[in-house]
Amino acid sequence: MRRIQALFETETVAGLHFARRNLELVLDNLADGVMAHTMNRRIFYFNKAAEELTGFSRDEVLGKDCHKIFKPARFCGGDCSFCAGPARGETAVAPKTSRVSFAAKDGSKRILAMAIMPLADAVGKNVGALVSFKDTTELEALKERVRHVHTCGELIGKDPRTRELFEAIEEAGSVSMPVLILGESGTGKELVARAVHDLSPRKTKPFVAVNCGALPEGVLENELFGHVRGAYTGAVRDQRGRFELAHGGTIFLDEIAELSPAMQVKLLRVLQEHSFERVGGERPVNVDVRVIAATNQDLQALMGERRFRRDLYYRLCVIPMLVPPLRERKLDIPVLIDHFLDKVSKETGRPPISASAETVDLLTRFPWPGNVRELRNTIEYAYVKCRSGLLEPHHLPSEIALREGSVRRAERPGPHPKLTQKTVRAAMEEAKFNKLKAARLLKVGRSTLYRFLHQIDLAAESDDR
């Protein structure tokens, strides 16, 4: 009794109460929710942020079993040390971080980033768990929106030029006018065409692709327009062409610049009249088809050489769309590396791997003349060569490593390209071997001249006058 009285007389109890109130004040001003419970899951602390995030007041939760308060779904998401029952033992509480889908008291859905840590007493024995959490619902929604901004159909990227292309695809998808896609080989022109189709009102109808450069003229005509029975030897029945198969949908004509003049005329008629005759037939066939064409050639130059009809060009190029080469959208390369690694992993059934920073840097500097197609082939090759979880430069094809070595050698200091022994010797003699005057005559810096003289051993003939 005297000891208790002494505590009050020395204001020790008041000091402890003051310290506790200050601690509660600090915790109540945190933006993150904080909850603490015993080894029996009885909640003994619940700060103001926790009240706001969950919708439950302190009076509703203090002293209660957290599994009974937060139901039907458990607050921890159903995966913590206490889910099987009250925890026992000094090592029963395992530290854990997770994202949990949580339904607040008012029924609103939230995503919480949660950290569960053990609470220990002075001797290190577990006495409960401390749970901190914050609402990441808006952040997760933003991440989801950003992810969709950087994808369009099967296309993926984050470079500004790629995002401009995605916007153009969305605009073209809202109408049914012809589209002309221009771009180097391997840039993904067919994927662009398919994305336009998938965003259009015709998306539930067929998408039919034809490579105009892969077939001879006679075979291509039959492929596009079909034939009637008896049109030629072996034509034992009527056969529909690609235009009829694409009725109501989209036909994609790749390598359109390879069409012969005669085929260009027939295609022009389809675009103008929406009809054609099958090979060997006389009856017009009417079709409702959107035409998307693509080429890796300069049609303007071909028109100047009279190899491509100008009237056909203007019929096709209602909506022009340029797919930039991969070397002009380098920000896409790291994204595509991860995308292809993940895709190859799923296709092969092997564990996923990642590329080292050095590998990504090397691949980003490579010019990729074959564009995205070449990058994918490179990743597939490297994936087969890699037997660890990390893709390193030595796993890449030899031509990439060899080019990297030659580029680095080219970047080393060497003779100035504008300087020759003859011009330098003439300038030195005119300047009476005064390097500063000779450099002015040559219109180069003095240090550049010094390096050149050292390399061709003319330095011995000059002085520092």
Task: Describe the protein.
The protein is of the alpha/beta class. It folds into 4 domains: 31-139, Beta-Lactamase, CATH 3.30.450.20; 150-322, Rossmann fold; 331-409, Helicase, Ruva Protein, domain 3, CATH 1.10.8.60; 421-461, Arc Repressor Mutant, subunit A (Orthogonal Bundle). The chain is 43% helix and 18% strand. The strands form 6 sheets. Strands 2-1-5-4-3 form a 5-stranded antiparallel beta sheet. The protein has a 5-stranded parallel beta sheet with strand order 9-12-15-8-16. The protein has a two-stranded antiparallel sheet with strand order 6-7.
**Largest sheet composition:** 5 strands, antiparallel
What is the approximate shape? Answer: flat
C-alpha Rg (nearest Å) = 36 Å
> How many extended strands?
18
Can you identify the CATH superfamily of the largest domain? P-loop containing nucleotide triphosphate hydrolases
Structural class, judged by helices and strands? alpha/beta
Fraction of residues in H or I helices: 40-55%
**CATH class descriptor of the largest domain:** Alpha Beta
Architecture of the largest domain, according to CATH? 3-Layer(aba) Sandwich
Straight-line distance between termini: 101 Å
Low-confidence stretches: 406-416, 458-465
Residues in β-strands, percent: 15-25%
Mean pLDDT across all residues, rounded?
83
Number of discrete domains: 4
Query: How many separate helices?
Result: 20
Q: What topology, given as strand order, has the largest sheet?
A: 2-1-5-4-3
- CATH structural fold name of the largest domain: Rossmann fold
